[in-house]
Amino acid sequence: MDNSPPHNLLDHIEDELKCGCCYELMVDPTTLDCGHTFCRLCVAKWWHTSKNINCLICRKPSQGFPEVSVQLRYEMCFEET
Ligand SMILES: [Zn+2]
Ligand SMILES: [Zn+2]
Prior knowledge:
The structure is a single chain. The protein is an alpha+beta fold and 81 residues long. The protein has a domain at 27-80: Zinc/RING finger domain, C3HC4 (zinc finger) (Herpes Virus-1, 2-Layer Sandwich). 38% of the residues lie in helices and 12% in strands. It has helices at residues 9-17, 40-50, 70-80, and strands at 29-31, 37-39, 53-54, 61-62. The chain has a two-stranded antiparallel sheet. Strands 3-4 form a two-stranded antiparallel ribbon. A hairpin with a 6-residue loop joins strand 3 and strand 4. The termini are far apart. The mean pLDDT is 78. One zinc ion is lined by residues 32, 34, 36, 55, 57-58, 60.
């Protein structure tokens, strides 16, 4: 019996952490209304160019600038103090 962990587990996790726009590991992951997540920089770029955001993966539009991650909230709070 093969008890080794699935070899693709790490690859899968890395895929989850990769931005579907720039294909880099996401920094400050930002989740759109549709549930897909991109790095905040990519989302910010879309927002600045078109003032609306359609998900690259499913094309669902997001209303306003999407919610940012807990991590980012923390950083914003940190900057404000
Ligand atoms: Zn990105
Ligand atoms: Zn989507």
